[in-house]
Amino acid sequence: MANRTYEYNPTGGSPVINVTAGAELKTAVAVLLTKDGAKLPEAGKKATGIVLLGDETASKGDDITVQIRNQGMWTAGAAFDSGDFLAVDEEGLCQKATTGQYILAMALTPATAKGDIVNVAIIHAGYEA
Q: What residues pair up with 68 in beta bridges, in sequence order?
């Protein structure tokens, strides 16, 4: 049998995916893909990506664009420094990751307060030790 090479690229090289909102969502918040659409993840748990900036909110059933890798923008839930690993809080905002929390991104710019929009590198780095 001849050698075969298979290329697996589920996103076609794009750092974003188009999905359906499974609940009312704000932009620049983290979401988790579920069978019912994109929803807010539990605080500190896995997230799929970040809703791109656009309209201020998306209603359940709306088509939304979610950034799943590379650099993006995320709304801060608290202050942190550049270089900090970031996890999701209860509102889908970013916070400095603590032990046992899933690291979705690394801060590229600091946040001085809740509500700041910050630049992040989406890295899906597993759980903070």
A: none
Strands of the sheet containing 30-34, edge to edge, are 16-20, 63-67, 49-51, 30-34, 37-39
Predicted confidence at residue 14, as pLDDT, reads 85
CA–CA separation, 6 and 118 (whole Å) = 37
Torsion angle, CA of 97/101/106/111, rounded to 10 degrees? Answer: -40
Both tokens of 47, joined, read 């997230």
pTM value is 0.88
Q: What share of the chain is helix, strand, coil (3-state, %, to 5)?
A: 0, 45, 55
Paired residues of 54 in beta bridges: none
Give all strands of the β-sheet with 94-96 in edge-to-edge order. 70-75, 117-127, 102-107, 85-88, 94-96
How many other β-carbons are positioned within 10 Å of the β-carbon of residue 68?
21
Which regions in the chain score pLDDT beneath 50? none
Comparing CA positions, the residue from 128, 123, 126 lying closest to residue 49 is 123
